[in-house]
Design goal:
Strand order of the largest sheet: 1-6-7-3
Strand content: 25-35%
Low-confidence stretches: none
CATH topology of the largest domain: Toxin ADP-ribosyltransferase, Chain A, domain 1
Mean pLDDT: 76
CATH architecture of the largest domain: Alpha-Beta Complex
CATH superfamily of the largest domain: Toxin ADP-ribosyltransferase, Chain A, domain 1
Largest sheet: 4 strands, mixed
Structural class: alpha+beta
Helix content: 25-40%
Order of helices and strands: HEEHEEEEEH
Shape: globular
Length: 143
């Protein structure tokens, strides 16, 4: 991961991050360290090795699906978990452990207060944009 992206995560601890594509993860720590580069990417001007530690409260219904797909994966020992597009996580902590950075995330659901504030804001913004475009279109057609 680029250092600038890691810095942004550090500056946004307690806030939300959304994934705009599928997210493939593993429960196998050895595999995660291997994929992260084993700390060998630590370069002050470039990229660093990062592991995401994701917490999921399985007692709560999540609106964004995720699935353990280890039996469908090419690498069964990897213990892969696939998160759907638009998964939203809270950034809980960003900390360096020896040569690896660990970003702690928590999968959130629709009942999360921060999620509700965010979606209310986006809905308001979306409605304002729609009304603006509608008014522009209407004024253009009237001429």
């Amino acid at each position: 991961m680029k250092i600038t992206e890691l810095t942004r995560l550090q500056q946004n601890v307690g806030k939300l991050i959304s994934m705009n594509n599928f997210l493939s993860t593993t429960n196998n720590v050895t595999a995660a360290i291997f994929f992260a580069g084993d700390g060998c990417l630590n370069d002050p001007n470039g990229e660093v090795s990062v592991i995401y530690q994701i917490t999921i409260d399985t007692s709560v219904h999540h609106s964004i699906p995720f699935a353990k797909i280890q039996y469908e994966s090419i690498f069964e020992d990897e213990d892969e978990v696939l998160f759907s597009m638009a998964s939203v996580f809270r950034i809980d902590n960003v900390e360096k452990y020896e040569t690896l950075w660990v970003v702690e995330l928590t999968l959130i659901n629709k009942e999360d207060e921060t999620w509700n504030i965010l979606t209310a804001h986006l809905n308001k913004q979306y409605q304002s944009t729609i009304m603006y475009l509608f008014n522009k279109l209407y004024s253009t057609l009237r001429v």
